[in-house]
Amino acid sequence: MIGVAAEAIEEMGPAATGINEVLRRAGAPRGSLYFHFPGGKDELVAEAVRFGAGRITELAVTAADEGGSAADVIGRLIKALADRQEESGFTKGCPVAGTALDAPAGSELAGLCAEIYDGWEATLRGLITAEGRPEALAGQILALVEGALLLSRVRATRAPLDAATVTVRTLLEAA
Amino acid sequence: MIGVAAEAIEEMGPAATGINEVLRRAGAPRGSLYFHFPGGKDELVAEAVRFGAGRITELAVTAADEGGSAADVIGRLIKALADRQEESGFTKGCPVAGTALDAPAGSELAGLCAEIYDGWEATLRGLITAEGRPEALAGQILALVEGALLLSRVRATRAPLDAATVTVRTLLEAA
DNA sequence: CGGCAATAGTAGACCGATCTACATATTTTT
DNA sequence: AAAAATATGTAGATCGGTCTACTATTGCCG
Predict the structure, then answer these.
(1) Which end of chain A is least crowded, N or C, by CB within 10 Å?
(2) pTM above 0.85?
């Protein structure tokens, strides 16, 4: 059920994702949702975002496992993100972004999104500081990738993401 | 009324923005909405996004009017965006991003968002090709700024945007 | 072993609130 | 008076959430 919700939220945002829709897609009755998620929709959305973010983190781990330079690892991650987006018919991008933009400023949900981004940035920081690059680059690479995910999605083409791979390399070499 | 809708949509996304809320904030009756926007909510959202995008374009024009190098102009634009975001209590970011992520892939609304991004990218391309920089950078700078707007918003700090200014300079100099 | 609670989970009816949209006046403007 | 715009009322659907009833599993105890 979390998986179904995560998918729907990534496609159309948490506000547009009704619990009826989630229940229908999951083939689950109403009672089950409120049994497993007493917090209702808020709790389900939070779990779905966590779940979705976990899938992306898995992609990052896979990319890192193959070794190579930071640029290599990040390049493979971006490729994996682009593949995922393309295969979904450009309905999937970042499972956090849509929720982050819909969440009220300062809300619990916004805090969760911020935590997830902080985690990803820390991972990037680890990669690039290991090569002696300035750690400030981590946040900028994250921003670049998030922006490229957004543009690739609305344009329904992986070009921005593919281009980001070389931009990352340029940034790492220039610093 | 368009202005009110644009503000609400930028804050919490189009799906979460009810027309009742818009009417209440604008102090307008229901009938007026369907007189001026026979297309209903869809039409209002489209107009609001167009309106919001126009405000950002104005910021870009202002930044360009002051002259200087492409990096100078883009830096001033980013600063203006950060100021705007900070002044709003980090509720405002990009007036298009939230809608772009909520819009169904391939929908009319998604097309509108893509057009707006294309326009902004074309403006950036004009700026940087005038200095002989590769035009492919335009899309990447746009992605970087969009991503920085997203991160700045969820973190409620202008740091990512401020950092983007120097990243843009690095990118322009490295190419 | 056998029966019996207790628990975990499913299933769906139902509620009030809210949503978009439309229909019908009423006022303002030209 | 005609047209433009405003001002409400209301219809029908859908929203998130609560409620009760049903089923299956588990563990306890004689």
Answers:
(1) C
(2) yes
Phi, psi of B164 (to 5 degrees): -60, -30
Question: Which residue in chain B has the smallest CA separation from A118?
Answer: B155
Nearest-5° angle of CA B157, CA B161, CA B166? 135
Query: Is the Cα dihedral A82, A139, A173, A71 positive or negative?
Result: negative
pLDDT of amino acid B29: 87
Mutate to test the interface with A, among B91, B137, B144, B170 (most CBs of A within 10 A): B144
Look at A101 and B153 and tell me if their CB atoms are within 8 Å: yes
Q: Is the pLDDT of residue A135 over 80?
A: yes
Topology of domain A49-174 in CATH is: Tetracycline Repressor; domain 2 (1.10.357)
- The token duo for A169 is 């390399």
**Which tokens belong to B173?**
């100099």
Q: For chain B, what are the domain ranges? A: 50-174
Residues 6+ apart with CB under 8 A from A36: A1
Specify the pLDDT at position A112. 98
pLDDT over 90 at A133, yes or no:
yes
CATH fold for the domain made of B50-174: Tetracycline Repressor; domain 2 (1.10.357)
pLDDT of residue B28 exceeding 90, the answer is no
Distance of CA B172 to the CA centre of its chain: 22
C-alpha closest to that of A173 among A69, A94, A53, A60: A69
Q: Do B139 and A154 touch (CB under 8 A)?
A: no
Cα radius of gyration (chain A) = 17
Q: Per-residue confidence at B109, pLDDT binned at 50, 70, 90? A: very high
